């Protein structure tokens, strides 16, 4: 671990925290068109994964990688994610309209939506998402079943980010940074456990 240099106000851990927040803000900006959200999260995870390999974690590097990788497959993944979110919202709205069996349907729809969100987020954290979304989603689906603890951590990270954004709206623009850090940590944890087997 690097020690504090002369004239440095904060230690290396605080520097990483600041870098995570700057990448989170850059990710929020990149997610604004909505269909770019999966590519934005995937790129943020790749940039944060680079911190373990002594690569710079900066918003400039983030935008450079994002510009290099935006392609039709990324936009298609964003369109699928957006369509799934809209379908879930419509299903929950119909369940709230008082249809027969609505409470059971709402629970089932929320469970399916939560599982799909975990698979999607874990796919964004996988290195394969930079080049091939199908492989990343297949691997993430296997991870959800094989690594239940990691999936629980992903759900906790999403809940924490949502709670922070709900409590103080300006935090919504910083929330993607800690969320992608958590996603990256869960994926690195999975990779390390797989290499030990």
From TrEMBL:
Annotated keywords: Membrane, Transmembrane, Transmembrane helix
Top-rank taxon: Bacteria
Residues that span the membrane, as ranges: 20-48, 75-98, 104-124, 144-169
Name of the protein this chain belongs to: Uncharacterized protein
């Amino acid at each position: 671990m690097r020690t504090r240099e002369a004239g440095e106000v904060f230690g290396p851990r605080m520097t990483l925290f600041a870098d995570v927040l700057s990448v989170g803000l850059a990710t929020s900006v990149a997610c604004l068109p909505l269909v770019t959200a999966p590519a934005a999260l995937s790129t943020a995870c790749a940039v944060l994964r680079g911190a373990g390999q002594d690569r710079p974690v900066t918003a400039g590097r983030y935008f450079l990688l994002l510009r290099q990788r935006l392609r039709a497959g990324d936009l298609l993944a964003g369109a699928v994610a957006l369509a799934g979110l809209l379908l879930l919202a419509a299903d929950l709205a119909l369940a709230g309209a008082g249809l027969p069996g609505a409470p059971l349907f709402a629970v089932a729809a929320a469970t399916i939506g939560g599982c799909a969100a975990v698979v999607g987020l874990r796919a964004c954290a996988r290195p394969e998402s930079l080049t091939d979304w199908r492989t990343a989603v297949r691997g993430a689906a296997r991870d959800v079943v094989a690594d239940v603890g990691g999936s629980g951590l992903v759900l906790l990270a999403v809940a924490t980010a949502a709670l922070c954004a709900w409590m103080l709206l300006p935090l919504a623009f910083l929330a993607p940074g800690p969320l992608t850090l958590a996603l990256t940590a869960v994926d690195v944890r999975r990779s390390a456990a797989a290499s030990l087997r």
